[in-house]
Amino acid sequence: MPFEVFNRHRMPSTQEPAVTIQKRGALSLNSAAFEALDSPERVELLYDREEELVGMQKAKDASSNAYLVRAVGQNGATHVVSGKAFLAHYGVPLDIARRWIAEKQGDMLIVDLKQPGTEVTGHSNRARKGGG
Fold it and tell me: Which of 24, 46, 97, 126 is the 20 to 30 A CA-CA neighbour of 118?
């Protein structure tokens, strides 16, 4: 099998806000994305059908449209929002987990789904396949 060169520019820098849409419908935010939203307890999820943009903004209260943001992992650097119903409603594919660099526009964090994103695999997938 021939070697291939790792393109380090495909992976987002941890300093840039990044959002991953996981196969089970969760939206995970790296620490830069969480901080860009002013470290929210809850967020509202928005979608622009014409431009295929996912928007996320800090919720002002615990309204029925607000989604809880929870820290995960040993150091709590990643934050997760359960977005399965939201993503299903707008037909966002969940066949492959993908990460996008998000852009801050006003008080909103935007993910452009027209961009290919970067395919990601979790630790559990590598463990099942015998990798590490």
Answer: 46
Instruction: Of 67, 79, 64, give the one whose Cα is nearest residue 22.
Output: 79
Distance in angstroms (rounded) separating the CA atoms of residues 102 and 56: 10
- Rounded distance between C-alpha atoms, residue 78 and residue 119, angstroms: 17
User: Which pair of structure tokens corresponds to residue 48?
Assistant: 């622009």
Domain residue extents for the chain: 18-128
CA-angle at 106, arms to 103 and 110, nearest 5°: 30
The structure tokens listed for 105 are 């526009």
The type of residue at 127 is A
For the entire predicted model, the pTM comes to: 0.80
